[in-house]
Each structure stands twice: as C-alpha cells, then as structure tokens.
Amino acid sequence: MNKKWIKRISLSIVAALGISCTLGEFADAKTNQSQYVQQNETTESFTKNDPELYQGALELGLSDNDIFKIDSLFDKEDKATVHNPFFVVMAAITSMAAVVGTGYGAGRYIAKQLYKRKQLSKKFYKKHRWKFRAALVPVIGIPGTFGFDDYYMDI
User: Fold this and answer.
1) Is 108 exposed, middle or buried (0-12, 13-18, 19+ CB in 10 A)?
2) What does the angle CA 19 – CA 25 – CA 28 come to, to the nearest 5 degrees?
3) Three-state DSSP class for 131?
4) E strands of 22-144, at which residues?
5) Cα-based distances in Å from 120 to 11, 102, 128, 147
6) Residue scoring higher pLDDT (152 or 12)
7) What global pTM score does this model have?
8) Under 8 Å between Cβ of 100 and 143
9) In contact, 125 and 145? CB cutoff 8 Å
10) Could you tell me which of 151, 141, 133, 152 has the C-alpha nearest to residue 102?
C-alpha cells in the first residue's frame, strides 16, 4: 500500500465522519425546533434554580424575561446525533481499513529499510521467519507484521 492510497483512505475517514455528524446535527435541529419551543415554555429556567446565578443576573440588570431567553438559547444547544446508520457503518469500516492499511504499509516500509540498509537479508529472514513474526506482532501489530512478512517473502 503506497502513500497515495493511505492518503485517500485517511481523507475518506475524515469525510465520512464529518458528513455523518453534520447531517445528524442539521436533521436533529430541524426536527426538534418545535419541541424546544414547547419545552421552554413549560419548564422553569435553570438560572432561577441556582440562587447565586439568578442574583448575579439580576445585579447585571437582566429581567426575568431576559434570563428566560438566555436559558432557552442554551437549551437549544444540541449534541450531534446520527440519523443515518449507513454513515456510521461506512465510517467504522473505512477507519478500520485505514488503520490496517497504515499498519501494513508501515510494516513493508520497515522491512524495505532493513533490507536497503543491509540489516536483515531475505535468506536469514526466511530461515527464522517464525521468530520474527512472534517478535513483531506485539511491536508493530498484526497488519504491520503481515506487511513486513510480505516484503521478505516476495509477495
């Protein structure tokens, strides 16, 4: 896996996550707008429930109506929700592919550098490959070990 594919996969992860969060945010804001208005008319202001905060607001010259308006604006602040599970699944699959692809590419790069710098020959690796595999898995992970192994096994 070369740099071009790693860059493409990374950008697709960012795009998928951005799209899923953004679409969820806009859809939720649109559907819940009327719920916020109804909810804010019937509920008590959270500023009034905190005596110190309420007293500070009154000292600033705010009326009860102003305090209620400010509180309702804070209540409208909504957290991002995902309305399309397809985007969530797509983002998860893409991110896993990016992690695996990056690990695989890193393993191949490490192997290539060791071979270029004459630190490890292919003949010696093939003779002791199981020892190398066992030693590399905890260090660079399974995808990295596959990339390392594929380079030395000429795959």
Assistant:
1) buried
2) 130
3) helix
4) none
5) 34, 22, 11, 15
6) 152
7) 0.47
8) yes
9) no
10) 141
**Which residue type occupies 127?**
K
> What does the block give as tokens for 115?
């071979």
Give the number of other CB atoms < 10 A from CB of residue 17.
17
HSE value, Cβ hemisphere, 13 Å, CA-based, for 9 = 19
Residue 108 confidence (pLDDT): 92
**Main-chain dihedrals φ then ψ at residue 87, nearest 5 degrees:** -65, -35
pLDDT in tens, 129-145: 899 889 988 888 889 89
Residue with tokens 């070990």: 145
- Residues 86-92: contacts with CB within 8 Å, 24+ apart? 87/16, 87/19, 87/20, 87/23, 88/20, 90/16, 90/20, 91/13, 91/16, 91/17, 91/20
